[in-house]
Amino acid sequence: MADPASMDWPQLEATVSSCQACRLCESRRQTVFGVGHRQAHWMVVGEAPGEQEDLAGEPFVGKSGRLLDNMLRALGLTREPAPAAQQVYIANTVKCRPPGNRNPQPDELARCEPFLIRQVALVQPKIILAMGRFAVQSLLRSDEPIGRLRGRVHDYQGVPLIVTYHPAYLLRNLPEKARAWDDLCLAVETVKACTAG
Ligand code: SF4
């Protein structure tokens, strides 16, 4: 396989769709590459495709996807067609559904991460919103809980990264929505500060 670091969008998408670099290719219906504006200012990174994402070929669908869309809408952002400043790009840390929705294994993540790194390099977002314990911990190479990683600006591939809860977790823990809103506000402030600078 050619090095993803030198691929353009069509090459990257084609490589992912036929990828057999880890065992997750055996149980997927289809790969879940990403969705949104390819020069978006905001990038959302989630964990791994679940059953509905595997069926739809799109990240963050179903109830948690609708909650994410509502959260984004409150910030004037959307995954639907819109100018780059208003549309997000959404991807996952791995592109194939782990069987039974188990967490991806470290070797699976290591095989898949070059695709995400290339997506980040191509999009060149102003901010990354990392959603959910698993995505956060794998992107930041940390085993700290989200509660300890929230509230400050991290870095992923040279892009400011804000940590927040996964919408599926928020659906089960409604009081945490206020904290998630604080995280989104921090992301907005970070984008403003970067733009002003
Ligand atoms: Fe390839 Fe990533 Fe799918 Fe593994 S999870 S088969 S590395 S696309």
What would you say this structure looks like, in words?
- The protein is of the alpha/beta class and 197 residues long.
- The chain has a single domain, classed as Uracil-DNA glycosylase-like domain (Uracil-DNA Glycosylase, subunit E, 3-Layer(aba) Sandwich), CATH 3.40.470.
- 43% of the residues lie in helices and 13% in strands.
- The chain has 8 helices and 6 strands, in the order H-E-E-H-H-E-H-E-H-H-E-E-H-H.
- The protein has a 6-stranded mixed beta sheet with strand order 1-3-2-4-6-5, sandwiched between helices.
- Strand 5 and strand 6 form a beta hairpin.
- The chain is globular and about 40 Å long.
- It starts with 8 loop residues before the first helix and ends with a helix.
- The structure holds iron/sulfur cluster (SF4).
- The site of iron/sulfur cluster has 14 residues, from helix 4.
User: Mean pLDDT across all residues, rounded?
Assistant: 95
What is bound: which ligands?
iron/sulfur cluster
What's the β-strand tally? 6
Which structural class matches the secondary elements? alpha/beta
The number of distinct helices, counting runs of at least 4 residues, comes to: 8
Q: Spell out the CATH superfamily.
A: Uracil-DNA glycosylase-like domain
Query: In angstroms, what is the radius of gyration?
Result: 16 Å
Strand order of the largest sheet: 1-3-2-4-6-5
CATH fold name, please?
Uracil-DNA Glycosylase, subunit E
Order of helices and strands: HEEHHEHEHHEEHH
CATH architecture field: 3-Layer(aba) Sandwich
Overall 3D geometry?
A: globular
Number of domains: 1
